[in-house]
Amino acid sequence: MKTLIEAAAPQSAVNTVIFHAVDGYTTSLPLQEILDNNLILAYNANGIALPPEMGYPFILVAEQKWGYKWARWVNRIELSSDDTYQGYWEGYGYSNDADLGKPSR
C-alpha cells in the first residue's frame, strides 16, 4: 500500500484513505497509518490470483486491525481530507480505530 500511495503523490490536505468494494462496502484508514505500517493490497496468494470468494480483484490486509478493516473486492481507493469518514461498520458504532488490542465497539 505504501508504494501505491506514494506513487499517487497525495496533496498535503489528504489524511484519510477510503477503500471502496464492488459490493458497496467501504472502510477507511488514516493515511499516516498506511505509510507507517505494513498494510498490503493483495491480488494473489502464493502466486495464484485471488478467486472471487477470497476478495478478487484486491483485498486489503491490515494484520493489526479487526477484520472489518480487511476490505475484500476492493475496486477503488479514494484519497480524502475527511478524517471523520465512517465506513460500513463504523456507521453502526464500531471503532474507526479498530486496533486489535482494543474493543471494537
UniProtKB/TrEMBL annotation:
InterPro entries: OxRdtase_Mopterin-bd_dom (IPR000572), OxRdtase_Mopterin-bd_sf (IPR036374). This is Oxidoreductase molybdopterin-binding domain-containing protein. The lineage of its organism: unclassified sequences, metagenomes, ecological metagenomes. Residues 2-89 form the Oxidoreductase molybdopterin-binding domain. Gene3D superfamilies: Oxidoreductase, molybdopterin-binding domain.
